[in-house]
Amino acid sequence: MFDARRAMLKGPDLFGRFAITDTATELAQARVPKSEQLIVFDRAGKRRALLVRQMAYHHATQGVLADEPFLITF
User: Fold this and answer.
1) Quick one: which of 18, 34, 67, 70 has the most CB atoms within 10 Å?
2) What gap in Å lies between CA 13 and CA 25, rounded to an integer?
3) How much is the pTM?
């Protein structure tokens, strides 16, 4: 279990977290090239897809899906 009291956080995050909003675009309408790699996650039948190249930069994303908060790291 993660214990926040033991974390040694010095200064701001090197990479800003990638915040996901509820204003998602349908994947079919997003015109994502077939060569683009995605990270897809599901909660209670609702799905979100993230571009691997975005996650390679941000390393962490957070938001709410199916009325529950999430944090994804890469």
Assistant:
1) 18
2) 28
3) 0.64
